[in-house]
Amino acid sequence: MSKKVGSWQAVGALVAHYRKHARLTQEQFAEAASVHVDTVGSIEQGRLALQPDRAEQFDELLGTKGALALLVERMPVREKVVQFAQSLVDHEQEAVSLLSYETQLVPGLLQTKDYCRATFDSRYPALGTEHSAAAGRQP
């Protein structure tokens, strides 16, 4: 039974396959692409996402006729973020949705006199009728 791999690992395996088919070592390919050999290794192992401009460059060097660029372009949005950074993206999306957090059940501008009166009347110990009535008369 084969082990499941992520999308970027599959892309990396394809880069490695094309590189080996071109009879290039990682060092030779890195030099030709003007990148560090560790960058090539990280892309091939799926730890580093292959960026669209880099995919086009790799296509030219490996003679793959745009296959890598097309693969990167068609990658699902959720897959475009490397796995270790996915939790950061999830938290960021949650934080954006919390920008409209309200400390009250009904935002201040939408509160009616009845809502205001009920809020003050429910306080323990009770404020008393004069405070409650004054709160209801506020503009």
UniProtKB/TrEMBL annotation:
<feature type="domain" description="HTH cro/C1-type">
    <location>
        <begin position="15"/>
        <end position="68"/>
    </location>
</feature>
<dbReference type="Pfam" id="PF13560">
    <property type="entry name" value="HTH_31"/>
</dbReference>
<keyword id="KW-0238">DNA-binding</keyword>
<dbReference type="InterPro" id="IPR010982">
    <property type="entry name" value="Lambda_DNA-bd_dom_sf"/>
</dbReference>
<protein>
    <submittedName>
        <fullName>DNA-binding XRE family transcriptional regulator</fullName>
    </submittedName>
</protein>
<dbReference type="InterPro" id="IPR043917">
    <property type="entry name" value="DUF5753"/>
</dbReference>
<dbReference type="Pfam" id="PF19054">
    <property type="entry name" value="DUF5753"/>
</dbReference>
<dbReference type="InterPro" id="IPR001387">
    <property type="entry name" value="Cro/C1-type_HTH"/>
</dbReference>
<dbReference type="GO" id="GO:0003677">
    <property type="term" value="F:DNA binding"/>
</dbReference>
